[in-house]
Amino acid sequence: MRQDFNHHGGVAIIRAKDFAPQESTRAVPRVGVVANPRSHRNSGGSRPTELPEAIVFKREPASRNELVSVLTQFVNEGVDLIVIDGGDGTVRDVLSVAHMVYRGHLPRVAVIPSGKTNALALDLGLPAHWSLGDAIRAHVENRIADREPVHVHWNNNALPDQLGFIFGLGVFSRATLLAQRVHRKGMFNNIAVALTVAMALLKSLVGGPRNSWRRGDMARVSRNGVEIFAERVYLMLASTLRNMPVGLRPFGRIRDGLKFLTIKAPPRALFRNVLPVLKGQESPQLEADGYIRRDVDKVYLSLDRGFILDGEQFPGGNLIVSRGRPIQFVVPA
């Protein structure tokens, strides 16, 4: 977890006369809230909300160790629903630790989209005003949608496994630094994504092959013990989301599963190909120019440089990137 989390604990029993539980849920659901008070929309504290009857455990862990303790408490308390109040980075942190604590068998999860970027919330169709009360009611009414995360594992367990939804390297890493500058100027979500993409493309289109934006990163890809790719890549992007921000469709048609887009470096005919790629168009010419789309369940990567997972940089090395076990998220009607 980021060190800017504050620690706060508390248990609340909240009652409402109009609560009508479904037979498939506990009469009074037990809800564990992990909140990041520094998230963009929280501004120092979780937003107040009118709740149905529930037992709510709210925590604001300040470190990964505290997060492990919090989620272990949720296990011991028999929490039915984990609510993550934060942006994509907070979601990644909580799901990654929960995967370890719950040994891969997580309870239902809700997301309160309060970060600078909320790609998962967009994919789930969560409105900006989605609240804790909305999430609890959705849980009680069994309104759920499955999403499979991108599961990153370092060989020899060099680092703890990470679960996220958007994995990228090459120009994606450089664009993430740009996005941080865009956020500092007060632009967030789709506006920030659109501006970042435009700026990254502009920087990629100017200059020659030695332009750092075009040069790319070295990536070695293997499956079933056989190396199938070893080249510099301008971009490698992977996601299990169905819908990407700003309506972008880098993987082509909308579908489930772990999807990859790899663009060889330096990118060929970038000016001609960029719009067809972003719009999801498919043609033999794109692959001939080194714009490769693939669906996989598991791939072995060897990276000299780091990669980005849901907005944060992680070190490279020998990795297994796979389609994670489905997680049940609560969603609007």
TrEMBL record:
Q: Which keywords, in A-to-Z order, does the entry hold?
A: Kinase, Transferase
User: In what residue span(s) does the DAGKc domain sit?
Assistant: 30-154
Which GO terms of the molecular function aspect are on file? kinase activity
- Which InterPro entries does the record cross-reference, listed alphabetically? ATP-NAD_kinase_N, Diacylglycerol_kinase_cat_dom, NAD/diacylglycerol_kinase_sf
| EC code | 2.7.1.-
* Enzymatic class: transferase
Name of the protein described by the UniProt record: Diacylglycerol/lipid kinase family protein
What's the source species for this entry? Novosphingobium pokkalii
Output the lineage of the source organism: Bacteria, Pseudomonadati, Pseudomonadota, Alphaproteobacteria, Sphingomonadales
